[in-house]
Amino acid sequence: MLSLVTSNEHKYKEISTYLNSKNLEINWLQRKYEEIQADDNDTISLDSSKKLANKINAPFFLEDTGLYITNLAGFPGPYSSYVQSTIGNENILKMASGSKAYFKTVITLCWKKNFYQFSGTLNGKISSAISGNLGFGYDPIFIPDNSNKTMGEMTTVEKNKISHRFIALEKLYLFIVENRIKNNL
Ligand code: ITT
After folding, report:
1. CATH code: domain of residue 108
2. For the segment 5-26, what is each residue's pLDDT rounded down to a tens digit?
3. What's the whole-model pTM score?
4. Is 64 designated active site?
5. Domain count across the chain
6. 122 and which of 40, 91, 164, 165 could share a cystine (Cβ 3.0–4.6 Å)?
7. Considering only CA atoms, which residue is closest to atom 2 of ligand 1?
8. Which residue CA neighbors atom 7 of ligand 1 most closely?
9. Which of 69, 79, 136 to mutate to test the pocket of ligand 1 (most atoms within 8 A of CB)?
């Protein structure tokens, strides 16, 4: 069975909801792993996977996500986790309310000691107020393009139709099907 490595139960929920709808069951390896500091999510995601490949003897994937705010020169980007737990949404609003922003997710799949990456981005803007108690992290302050509500006001199913994570996951799923990996999991 394919394993997802993440400490974040919201990620697990969004990812398993999507893959289960495609009849793909996943195993949740709930653990925190060390992440290097780098300028982009691709490098962080790949580095973490390579380190974990020495410890996990089965097919697995993980993902790294960042919020890039245009008026803050792309900050917090790869520092999104640290900024969320220190500065927090209220202070982000004070600094960047109304600014364009995007989420980027990079999935790395480790399959037979090879690494494959799939990314997804979602454009939008920082809201004027915190709104909604669904989702997690930056969701209550992020309004996707073509939407009139924050992602904190969206159910998992609604968010999964448009999100950065969903776009990356769709590519992962296609790769699994096209390479007949699904039957060997
Ligand atoms: P793992 O590394 O264990 O998977 P994490 O929560 O640390 O879990 P990230 O480093 O990828 O995951 O996340 C960086 C930050 O961005 C973190 O504070 C998340 O809460 C936030 N975040 C990630 N995905 C998000 C999403 O879809 N919506 C809103 N915030 C998100």
Report:
1. 3.90.950.10
2. 999 999 999 999 999 999 999 9
3. 0.96
4. yes
5. 1
6. 164
7. 6
8. 81
9. 136
